[in-house]
Design goal:
The chain is α/β, with parallel strands linked by helices. The protein contains ten helices and nine strands.
Amino acid sequence: MLLTFLGALFAGASLTSSFTNTSPFFMFSTSELLISSPQIVSAESLSTSLLPQLSKCPSDTYVVVTQPGVHAEDYRDGFFAPYLRRKVQGEDKRIRSATSVMDVLGNVNTDEIVQEVEARCGAALLRVDASTGSFSIADDPKPRVINLEFPALPAGSKRASKLQENDAFLSSLLDLLPTSKYTVIYTTTPYSSALSSSPSTEPEEVYEMDTSFSSQTHMELKRDFAAHGKRANGSNSSGGNVTLVDGPLFERYAFLSPGIFMGLLIALPLFLILYVGVSGVGSLQVSYAAFDREMGPAGQQKKGQ
């Protein structure tokens, strides 16, 4: 029983660590596309199954969306992205095929998708930057591929509202399309990769150490003050209250690693077993007279005399 519990514990910990670098993928189209919907898949396998379907040119307009800095939990609640949820779940009767993969390992190459549609379907490329809030689409029946790029979601309480704004922006763009035959490929990148790729706003301090070697060797020690800046900004804006960054458990707390977490969970049942054993031994009650009295036949003869 204990070995089964420990095995399940290690399996759950390994799954938790493997899903921290995944992000969801969505696609819906007014045409028939044969795309499977596994729970977890690599980005390479997903592209391999997606490109042959797009090479058949099933639509007139292709919208390739890039949303960096998200994870599957951002889309669990349909209130944060209601338009996308209705399309993927098939509530819109015009949508004839839809798929969603909640955990994609790696980043889907959107440039490869755009180039495939341009080469196979003769589509014209239109890049739309959602951060500017403006775009223009020509009213003509020519095939086109729209590369829509959203900025990374911020951390904290504004995260949900920003995702709602991006969802409304996508809805407005699709409403302005001159054709009713379209395919939307909604790609995302993990939240952890957005944190690592975001540039630091603090200047880097470079320390140089001169050595006695003939070839002047310099070593640069770089210090990253991004984490300290976030804590300072959070304390100043909220009157002394520090706002925790959203994300997995082991990324929010620096002193809690997966090894320490598993060690604590394993130590808890071992201490419970030790407590039960010590309590059982301590509950044994034997009187001292039991060792003095003779309970055998010799004792019975003495009592009779």
